């Protein structure tokens, strides 16, 4: 049972055929038999986050807004769905984190279990479908959510997030953190993040002083725990205690200028 919706009678096959004329008659009949109809009033919430991720929803009438909640104040519109469009988390569970749905207008929605839908349409198990989806289009879904999540981040926070991802993909772990086996300059990071090299140099210096990045000549070491702790911290500049500040300078050499803190 959905939180705010009212369950109605079974779905008419003719309604499905109007939206999906390329499907076979037997597929349409099986889909119609497995779907339940739910009517929502304008403003009603539609659960699209876990544990409701097992459901797929088809908009039949009205309009459904899908948003992502950045924090208590900021909300980003992901999609405004019209009749015939489908939403739901059938492939990547991470996409459900922070997503919200609500009826933008009085709406009629059909709901079906995602495993059932995949079996009807493709004749395969949901696990196999998820694996194939991850291999083929998973990168684009992750890229979309990364963009949405970074939308309200400061350039400093975007740098931290980028370093965490780079370290997870191109880092080799040792006792100090992740040794970065990827040639990278301040200009490279500036180009990736759409920031000036001067700003990247400034932020990089802060990360070094905080111990989140270690410079050993031309070898860079990322400290994942310290980088993760900085996400959402808008006061990076003021978080370094005198003791940590001193230790960082001692480790990296007080004679290093900011220009030397990252190889050019």
3D structure, described in words:
By secondary structure, this protein is α+β, with helices and mostly antiparallel strands. It is built from ten helices and 13 strands. The chain has helices at residues 13-19, 25-34, 114-122, 126-136, 138-150, 155-170, 186-193, 197-209, 224-229, 242-252, and strands at residues 6-7, 36-40, 45-46, 55-61, 64-69, 75-81, 86-88, 99-103, 107-113, 171-174, 177-180, 213-216, 219-222. A five-stranded antiparallel sheet has the order 1-2-9-4-7. 23% of the residues are buried.
Question: What are the SSEs and their pairings?
Answer:
Layout (H helix, E strand, L loop, with lengths): L5 E2 L5 H7 L5 H10 L1 E5 L4 E2 L8 E7 L2 E6 L5 E7 L4 E3 L10 E5 L3 E7 H9 L3 H11 L1 H13 L4 H16 E4 L2 E4 L5 H8 L3 H13 L3 E4 L2 E4 L1 H6 L12 H11 L12
Antiparallel strand pairs: 1-2, 2-9, 3-8, 4-7, 4-9, 5-6, 5-8, 10-11, 11-13, 12-13
Mean pLDDT over all positions = 76
Radius of gyration using CA atoms only: 24 Å
> How does the helix and strand content classify structurally?
alpha+beta
Uncertain parts:
233-264
- The protein's oligomeric status is single chain
Largest sheet: spatial strand order: 1-2-9-4-7
Number of helices: 10
Tell me the fraction of residues in β-strands, as a range: 15-25%
What general form does the structure show? elongated
By DSSP, the count of extended strands is: 13
What is the share of helical residues?
A: 25-40%
Largest sheet: 5 strands, antiparallel
What is the ordering of alpha helices and beta strands?
EHHEEEEEEEEHHHHEEHHEEHH
How far apart are the first and last residues' alpha carbons, in Å?
59 Å
């Amino acid at each position: 049972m959905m939180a705010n919706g009212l369950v109605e009678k079974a779905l008419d096959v003719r309604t499905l055929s109007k939206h999906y004329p390329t499907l076979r008659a037997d597929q349409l009949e099986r889909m119609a038999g497995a779907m339940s109809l739910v009517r929502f009033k304008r403003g009603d919430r539609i659960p699209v986050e876990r544990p409701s991720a097992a459901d797929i929803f088809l908009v039949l009438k009205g309009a459904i807004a899908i948003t992502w909640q950045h924090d208590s104040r900021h909300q980003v519109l992901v999609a405004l769905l019209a009749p015939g469009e489908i939403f739901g988390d059938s492939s990547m569970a991470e996409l459900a984190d922070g997503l919200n749905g609500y009826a933008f207008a009085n709406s009629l929605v059909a709901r079906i279990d995602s495993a059932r839908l995949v079996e009807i349409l493709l004749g395969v198990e949901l696990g196999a479908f998820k694996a194939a989806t991850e291999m083929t289009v998973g990168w684009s879904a992750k890229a979309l959510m990364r963009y949405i999540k970074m939308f309200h981040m400061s350039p400093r926070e975007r740098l931290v997030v980028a370093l965490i991802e780079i370290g997870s993909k191109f880092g080799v772990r040792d006792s100090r953190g992740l040794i970065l086996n990827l040639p990278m300059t301040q200009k490279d990071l500036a180009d990736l993040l759409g920031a000036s090299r001067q700003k990247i140099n400034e932020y990089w210096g802060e990360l070094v002083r905080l111990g989140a990045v270690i410079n050993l000549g031309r070898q860079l070491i990322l400290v994942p725990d310290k980088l993760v702790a900085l996400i959402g911290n808008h006061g990076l500049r003021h978080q370094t205690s005198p003791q940590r500040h001193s230790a960082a300078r001692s480790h990296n050499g007080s004679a290093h200028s900011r220009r030397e803190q990252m190889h050019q």
